[in-house]
Amino acid sequence: WGLLLLAAALGATAAARCPAPCVCDNLRAHVLCLNGSLTAIPDTIPELTRKLDLRGNSFMVIPAGAFLATPYLTHLDLQHCKVERLEEGAFRGLGRLVYLNLASNGIALLYQESLDGLFSLQQLILEGNRIEEIQLGAFGHLASLTVLDLRANALVYLPDMIFQGLQVLRWLRLSHNALHVLGTEAFAALPALRRLSLDHNELQALPGEALARLDGATRLDLGHNPITYVAEEALAMASLRHLFLDHASLQDVAPDAFARSPQLRILDLRENQLQGLPPLAGAGGLVRVSLDGNPLLCSCLLRPFHKWLARARVQAEGACAAPPALRGRSLNSLKSPEMRCSRLRPPPSPTTPPEQPSSAGSRQCPRGCVCSPDFHHGSCENRDLREIPRDFPEDTRLLDLRQNSFRTVPPDAFPGLKELVSLHLQRCSIRELQPGALRGLDSLVYLYLTNNHLSTLAAAAFEGAPQLAYLDLDHNAFTHVPAGTFRLLPNLISLHLQHNTIRELVEGDLAGARGLRWLYLAGNAIRRIAPAALAPTKMLEKLQLEGNHLSEVPTAALRGLPALSELKLSRNPIKHMGDGVFLPVASSLQHLYLDNMGLERISPHAFTGLGPKIRSLYLESNKMSNIPDMSNFTGLEILNLQDVPFHCDCQLLPLHRWINKLNLCIGATCGSPAEAQGLKVKLSTTFQTCPGWGQGEAGETNPYKTKAASKPSKKKRLGKSPAKGFSKSRA
After folding, report:
1. Which of 131, 368, 439, 507 lies 20 to 30 angstroms, CA to CA, from 560?
2. Total domain count for the chain?
3. Does residue 148 share a domain with residue 240?
């Protein structure tokens, strides 16, 4: 009886402390605060909570010790919470946590202690952020982690030992980044890894040396990389059984390419540019080779490979593209006499790229600085330096010079640092980068210049740094985009110009930025974007314009952006949205942010062209009383309509019916009439007097009906209904 009374008392305490607008399931110790307007982690969550779901809020920053009041958490979901920064110690105290989901936020950098204290964590999901860099040691405390998901971020480079500490990790997911440089020891600290996903990146050669550290890996995904050639003994993975090199740019594979991977069973080479293959004599364990989608030339040149298939009993999938007499014939159906040569020349063999010379750091560390030879790091952070120090070891790859007072970066400021990849110059009072300032930094990928006093940049400042992919100029003094600056940066992928005072974008501002994918312009004073201002950036995928002074959607400027998948217009004073404003990007747009704009009216045809590709739509905190028909938004995973004063009369009946069938939590509330004010649109009874009410509820065709409405999907990220036993309703 004593235990029962104690349990009842704890349950009553938990119910009393359940914070608004959350719902609490006291029996299962679950708390849901979905799709709300929370800007800070509630401090009244019951202490005994085990599962906490905070999806769809607006936290921006997770401060140190944010969850100290809930030490029993085992599952924490922070998807779609607009998180940009994890402070060091953010999850300290969560020693029981086994699952952490931070997908679809705006995190750009993982600090060394960001994940401190999570020593029981088994799954960490960071998919769909904008992580550009991971500091060494960031995963050092995750000794129990088995799955690490870093898909769809902005990683270009993986330094040596970056995954140190992940002793039991079994699956590392790095797909859909922009990786093109891997340290030779990048995967050295992953003894338990079984599966590595590197597909959809920018690798131009098989990273054999880095992969050789993975003795236990059985599956490797390298598809959708621009790899043209697999050299002899390029892959030495003792346990590898499944290798995917599909949808690459392969033109040739050496006969002994897989000789040092004796367990290889499945080789997927679909959709490449292979006209043929040599006998893969070194791959004695192969069972199947997939060659579908290659321009196979079934001439006498292919006979040795064809005979090897039969001799080794390897199943081949693929069909001839030439000669015409054999076009469409499967490889398995061919006979050697049919494979003839008639004045055909063998295709030229690609030249094996020369090995890059390695350089060893022979110089000592500058006085007052700290250099780590194991990690190839140098740091002079917060040393009150007036000049940039020299004589760092030549093999330095990360140089941290933050919080000094350099004022200017002179020509040739970093001599001998040809291997430097990441340079940190934040908060250094810098007003000028002189021409040639970065000369000699042949390998530089990341340059951080945030919180300085820069107001202009000359293109010549970037001379000699052709690999620069990430340029962070947030929190400076720019009043305009430094036109012409990017002509010497052919590999620029990500440009940050947030929180400056830029007033407009004009034609020519982004000239030369042909490969730009992510453009961040939040928190400026932009009133106008010229129709041709974004024209050079045809590969642009993300455009963030929130917190500016735009009074209309810049429709004309969006033309010619066929890859744009995310557009943020939040916190711009756009009061009216006309017909077809998103038509130029309708075929590619997936995530659209229109919240907190004071939006008063949306034209019935404003969303024309948008449809099944839209995955998330944010319309919260606006002033319109109705929204257009979105019946073709069949792929919705997130829809936020919180703090919109809907007028719940008969004109809103189709929306009411649609919402009733959606498997999403959207937060729509009636603002009028008076008898419905404050009620959920889903629950309002004002619709019961509308013509056709009975037929509609009985199954009348609903113009708002979507796939999301018709059948629940496991993919719906905000679509879980509150479980039985919750103390409040949150429809």
Report:
1. 131
2. 2
3. no
Residue that the structure tokens 């050092």 belong to: 140
DSSP output for 95-151: TT--EEE--SS---EE-TTTTTT-TT--EEE-TTS---EE-TTTTTT-TT--EEE--
In a domain, 276, yes or no: yes
State residue 627's pLDDT score: 87
Residue (of 551, 588, 537, 598) closest to 567 by Cα position: 588
171, 194 contact by CB (below 8 A): yes
Indicate whether 146 and 44 sit together in one domain. Answer: yes
CA distances to 55, 108, 115, 118 from 127, rounded to whole Å, are: 14, 12, 16, 18
Whether 125 and 215 map to the same domain: the answer is no
Asked, for residue 381, whether it belongs to a domain, the answer is: no
Buried b (16+ CB within 10 A) or exposed e, 405-429: ebeebeeebbebbebbbbbbbbbbe
How far is 472 from 451, CA to CA, in rounded Å?
Answer: 10
Burial of 5 (0-12, 13-18, 19+ CB in 10 A): exposed
Q: What is the rounded CA–CA span in Å between residue 462 and residue 444?
A: 10
Strand, helix or coil for residue 495 = strand
Same domain for 222 and 148? Answer: no
Q: What pLDDT sits at residue 202? A: 83
In a domain, 219, yes or no: yes
pLDDT tens track for 487-515 = 889 889 889 999 999 999 999 999 999 98
Cβ(568)–Cβ(544) under 8 Å?
yes
**pLDDT tens, position by position, 191-219:** 999 999 999 998 878 898 899 989 999 99
Q: Are 130 and 443 in contact (CB under 8 A)?
A: no
**Does a structural domain hold residue 522?**
no
First to last CA, the chain: 37
Burial class for 10, CB neighbours closer than 10 Å (0-12, 13-18, 19+)? middle
d(CA 337, CA 343): 16
Name the DSSP letter for residue 680.
Answer: B
Please check whether residues 150 and 38 belong to one and the same domain: yes
- The enclosing H or E element of 12 equals helix 2-17
For residue 307, the surrounding DSSP H or E stretch is helix 303-312
Token couple for 143: 């000794």
3-state secondary structure of 535: coil
For residues 648 and 497, give the distance between their C-alpha atoms in angstroms, rounded to a whole number. 42
| Amino acid at position 697, single letter | E
Is residue 679 packed enough to be buried (19+ CB in 10 Å), middle (13-18) or exposed (0-12)?
A: middle
- Helices (H), ranges, 561-704: 653-661, 693-698
Instruction: Provide the domain limits for residue 46.
Output: 19-154
Average pLDDT score over the chain: 86
Q: pLDDT tens digits for 238-261?
A: 999 999 999 998 888 888 899 899
Mean pLDDT by 10 residues, the chain (731 residues): 42 58 88 86 92 93 94 96 92 96 93 90 96 89 96 89 94 92 88 96 87 94 89 89 93 88 95 89 87 91 91 92 90 89 46 39 78 79 91 88 93 93 91 94 90 93 90 94 88 91 95 90 96 94 95 95 94 95 94 94 92 89 87 84 89 83 79 88 85 59 43 37 31 29
Q: Of 50, 97, 41, 53, which Cα lies nearest the Cα of 77?
A: 53
Q: Which of 616, 626, 573, 610 is nearest to 593 (CA)?
A: 616
From residue 97, alpha-carbon distances to 126, 159, 168, 439, 652 in Å are 16, 28, 16, 47, 43
Q: How far apart are CA 400 and CA 384, in angstroms?
A: 13
Does residue 146 sit in the same domain as residue 60? yes
